[in-house]
Amino acid sequence: xxxxxxxxxxxxxxxxxxxxxxxxxxxxxxxxGITVTACTPHIYPGLYENTGPAIRQAVAELQxxxxxxxxxxxxxxxxxxxxxxxxxxxLRSGRVPSLHNTRYFxxxxxxxxxxxxxxxxxxxxLAAGYIPVVTHPERLSWIEDHYEIFxxxxxxxxxxxxxxxxxxxxxxxxxxxxxxRMLDExxxxxxxxxxxxxxxxxPLLAEGQRAAERWVGATEALHLVETRPQGILNxxxxxxxxxxxxLSIAKPSRAHRSWFSRWFGGQ
Length: 267
Prior knowledge:
By secondary structure, the chain is an alpha/beta fold. It has helices at 19-32, 52-68, 87-93, 118-127, 143-156, 173-185, 206-233, 245-248, 256-264; strands at residues 2-6, 36-39, 42-43, 74-77, 80-82, 104-108, 131-135, 159-163, 190-192. The protein has one domain (2-264): Metal-dependent hydrolases (TIM Barrel, Alpha-Beta Barrel), CATH 3.20.20. Strands 3-5-6-7-8-9 form a 6-stranded parallel β-sheet. Strands 1-2-4 form a 3-stranded parallel β-sheet. The protein is globular and about 45 Å long.
């Protein structure tokens, strides 16, 4: 399995605070079957002023430590980039690292406020040749009132990444509901751990794959954690990779009443 969203680098943001924690997280990931992890610290102007060169250097140093510890985990660079008017310039210059130096990069919207002109922002990024992978939309507090925005973003060419733990209830009932709904309707491209530590948010991806199988079947669940993530690392064109269900065949969603019955008492 390939995890393209993990805060594994020590002491660089709100993820692993030190090398010991990074190594412990890596052991959990390897035991879970993860072979490649993208280290993706936040880039948030005014809060986390990380840069591409510093992230890539930290990744190289961490790989040395992983190898010395005998941990069979390959790490690569990336960033959890927040919306910024200079994002395209940042990607072009390398100040904002894309995933494994490809056309794909992680885009993290604000958690509690729907950003203005999000569709315009994504269009500009796509027009510049980059493919934003929107991180954990199911966990955003404003998804309930703006669900169709994410659908439209996918139709325009953006990718969606759901956190594996959302599908197992680690982030509460609302995140599980929206993650399952996006899966069932076929709008999810990849799963990732978005791990920040050893206990509260460990780097476990297999549980998400198993949970996804209930909604999309074994083949598509494998695409979520292997095929498409590997395609990103290979910098393949999106249309060369398996299409997500919503864009491959027209299919009715399972009755939404089942979700509302499950989470909201049938209302």
